Amino acid sequence: MGSKRKGILERLNAGEVVVGDGGYVLQLERRGYVKAGHWTPEAAVEHPEAVRQLHREFLRAGANVIQTFTFYCSEDKLEISGNVTNITGAQINEAACDLAREVANEGDALVAGGVSQTPCYVQSHSETEVKTIFKKQMDDFLKKDIDFFIAEYFEHVEEAMWAVEVLKTSDKPVGATLCISPQGDM
Q1: C-alpha angle with apex 147: 146 to 149, nearest 5 degrees?
Q2: pTM to 2 decimal places
Q3: Which H or E element spans position 48?
Q4: Which of 30, 34, 157, 183 is the most exposed place for a label (fewest CB within 10 A)?
């Protein structure tokens, strides 16, 4: 590759508008590739052409960030969602990173590795267990050299903080989003 692309922090510090993508599960459900009720990303392995195409559509629409299709990709979520294909989180993370990088390189886009809330948090509130899940996902992403992390769509502030704490142990920038109701977190 030629010159090194500007990272997320350089872009933001320069006052650039950075546009992300999103809505993968809903779009892929409309196209017949996933069921939104499970919210899990096995399609990154089972239907990579569909995920690649959606990445390209987001890139053409102006996205500067291509997010890995890894929403709810923790082993505990995959297990309770009825993942009967026995596709592992690591397999999904690897495929999702490769697809996102392939398309990001077709433009001047960055790749964001995304982690999201875990069933483990609600069930046990075990900081050690939850952080172990995030560390495993982070390690998968770091093998693929993503550009930055997004801790995405957390209902519980404490769990979001744990995700950010883990992700900040890498040298990558970290962003986080919450889905907080008018009454606060869950």
Answers
A1: 80
A2: 0.91
A3: helix 48-60
A4: 183
